[in-house]
Amino acid sequence: MTIQFPELAKLLGNDPDKVRLVIGEFYRSATLDLQRLERAAAADRWDVVHEIAQRLHVGCLQICEPGAAHAATLLGHVPGEFFADVYARRRPDIVELLERAQEFTDGDASASWRKAEHEG
Description:
By secondary structure, this protein is an all-alpha fold. Helix content is about 80%, strand content about 0%.
């Protein structure tokens, strides 16, 4: 089960319960942060976008996911007029990680993510 997050598993002594706990917490906070980031960008609150993107970046690094961390960093530094384009290209990197995290902790990644996406 920890094959989905091998570097994190190694850091946590290959304890699946610890990995599940960390990934579950990451999933909950990152899902909310991504929704907040979208709302902040829609409201032209670029200071908030930067802050949230930084939180996403750190969270991704903490679970050893540098690709999604890089995507979050880009979102936090792109000028507002280019945000929509960059977001459209980089969002899948973060969503894919969220789906893997949800699948790892609960099971049905796409149904849960899609539901949260429509509620936010």
